[in-house]
């Protein structure tokens, strides 16, 4: 039996507020409070993909963790029974059905920052933990002069087991081409350079296959997803902030951005939360809509596994709003006011029958006008 939810929206805004840190007895209790999904009926292994950007960066930002924080997070995940896997193991799981550990975590880094090579890479290498490094050739060509890695750095990392993936050619918003792009044909050429040619450039330099793509800003749509498939990528990663299982779309794989201000308790809650999976959504994941008033509906897969009274949902930053249950129906309705055309995330939480907080999300685009001939 499906559980159907709906809400009427008028547009959205993205915001995530995180706070400060320290591991105490209550936080350690999360290790046993959030066990992974283990049965095939519930989706098989829990798959957590973490997205980092900097390690020990001289300029302190929300995207720069310290070596101590990274080590603490690794320790906490290992204590919770997680195994660290590489992206090839994840590919083989989805493509060939090869098994992975019941609690699997993949570490990724975006952007090609030099501090990852200087601090993160030695730390993870010493601990025997694999990771994927998503880089964009424009920045690698500039190398150390712009605080990024160069091709020699990447060759060393690749030779020591680090997977190198593409982060496009120049790190643009793929749904917003330059103003010089005038029609669909020009847009397709531009996309091919960003998506396909970036892969070729990295492969040419490293003499190794590149099969993973991380979307800059996590901002893409179904058209770009298809272009990535046509370019030969086996997996494409977003930053939706939730986890996955076997039911995931491997060309829209979830990742959680790890920020410097994230307390270890929050880190564990997010990294170990079982996923909510939707058998249907409206708008569909990665869709474009242009109506100011849009029904947002979702149907939870395996709905009987969840406590209906705990289902909560919000669109992007509207966390204070609550779903209103329409009597004698399966529908939940929420109204928010549109603010600007942008990407919007529908974020849903619910507790399962054993009390675990589960999280799910999907992304779509709102536009005020009918999509142009340039962007489908």
Summarize the model shown.
The protein is α/β, with parallel strands linked by helices. The chain has two domains: 19-275, Glycoside hydrolase/deacetylase (TIM Barrel); 280-366, Sandwich (Immunoglobulin-like). It is 27% helix and 24% strand.
Provide the descriptors you would attach to this structure in a database record.
single chain; TIM Barrel; Immunoglobulin-like; 2 domains; 6-stranded parallel beta sheet; 10 helices; 20 strands; 27% helix
CATH class of the largest domain: Alpha Beta
Rounded to an integer, what's the Rg over CA atoms? 20 Å
What shape does the CA trace take? globular
The fold-level CATH name of the largest domain is: TIM Barrel
State the low-pLDDT regions, or none. Answer: 7-42
Strand content: 15-25%
Question: What about the largest sheet?
Answer: 6 strands, parallel
What is the arithmetic mean of pLDDT? 85
Percent of residues in helices comes to 25-40%
**SS class:** alpha/beta
Domains counted in the coordinates: how many? 2
Order of helices and strands: EHHEEEHEHEHEHHEHEHEEHEEEEEEEEE
Helical stretch count? Answer: 10
Task: Give the CATH superfamily of the largest domain.
Answer: Glycoside hydrolase/deacetylase
